[in-house]
Design a protein that fits this description.
The complex is a heterodimer of chains A (92) and B (200). Chain A is mostly helical and 92 residues long. Chain A has 4 helices and no strands. In chain A, helix 1 packs across helix 3 and helix 2 crosses helix 3. Chain A is elongated and about 50 Å long. Chain A starts with a helix and ends in a 20-residue tail after the last helix. Chain B is globular and about 50 Å long. In chain B, helix 2 packs parallel to helix 4, helix 7 crosses helix 9 and helix 8 crosses helix 9. The chains are: A mainly alpha (92), B mainly alpha (200). The interface between A and B is large, with 51 and 70 residues.
């Protein structure tokens, strides 16, 4: 397993570009190789930062209101008690 | 919700720790923590979803669904496997890309409906300085690092991250061998790792 394969595969995996046999092999190697897992983790973090490349837009207030409404109709988490007050909503 | 650890900071390590702490509180059903997490993540997540989908209603749906998933699955989060932010980005990006791939399949217009037709432009140019100023320090740092990449690496990363194209589709679009595309993506991400390294 060359260092180029490790870097290529980690980068492609971080972007969701591995599939089929390539993905299966990468997962297998990661399972057995902590250093490869760490490289993969770091490149996933790098990739996540690419969201800041998009032109910035603020979500509309309606989105927060919709989430508040949806959470208000839920009774806590699956298998967990709801420790918030009834109808509680995300805070500002 | 404990206030002490939730400092406003631009220190990336501290930021990730705060996000993880908030997500831990969300796992306990803390809606105030969920609101704090929404305030921290929703801007960049919505911006990315909108950039991918070019449709505000769809972008809102995607971000909504991702936050519901964060609420429901918070207890399964393991910080050792990655940051809360990268998890949230993955949730949004995967959903957005699934949608654009469905659009393409439905229209059978894969080649014609790729990113440059969605208004991304073809030169892979970095965002304007004005745009960058709107974002926080972290976003500015990321944008500056991206701007330093060679244009061919930026273009390959852009098509992969926002366009949802496969390796082969990127190679066809850019009329380059597959190995060249892999190398551009690898070099681009490794350069970004160098530039952003201290915060990862």
């Amino acid at each position: 397993m060359s260092s180029e394969w490790r870097e290529d595969s980690s980068a492609l995996h971080a972007l969701g570009l591995l599939a089929g046999d390539e993905l299966a092999r990468f997962r297998q190697e990661c399972h057995a190789d902590p250093a490869l897992r760490e490289m993969s983790r770091v490149l996933r973090e790098v990739t996540a930062q690419l969201v800041h490349w998009a032109p910035p837009h603020s979500p509309p207030e309606a989105l927060r209101e919709r989430l508040v409404e949806d959470l208000g109709s839920r009774r806590g988490h699956p298998g967990r008690p709801d420790r918030a007050s009834p109808g509680g909503a995300p805070a500002d | 919700m404990s206030e002490a650890p939730l400092l406003l900071t631009n220190d990336p390590g501290e930021r990730d720790r705060t996000d993880a702490l908030l997500l831990g509180l969300v796992a306990e059903g803390d809606r105030e923590a969920f609101g704090r997490l929404y305030d921290r993540f929703s801007g960049p997540l919505y911006s990315a979803a909108l950039h991918i989908l070019q449709d505000a209603a769809e972008a809102q749906d995607i971000v909504h669904d991702a936050f519901i998933t964060l609420w429901e699955k918070a207890s399964s989060f393991e910080r050792s496997r990655g940051s809360a932010f990268s998890w949230a980005v993955t949730l949004v990006r995967n959903r957005a890309i699934d949608r654009i791939r469905m659009r393409r399949r439905r229209a059978e217009l894969l080649a014609e409906s790729a990113p440059e037709d969605l208004g991304y432009g073809t030169d892979g140019a970095a965002p304007s300085a004005d745009d960058a100023a709107v974002q926080g320090d972290n976003a500015r740092l990321v944008r500056a690092a991206i701007a330093e990449l060679p244009v061919e690496q930026r273009r390959a990363l852009e098509l992969a991250f926002f366009g949802g194209l496969t390796q082969e589709e990127i190679a066809r679009r850019l009329q380059e061998p597959l190995g060249t595309i892999k190398a551009r993506i690898r070099r681009g991400l490794l350069k970004l790792r160098e530039a952003l390294g201290p915060q990862l």
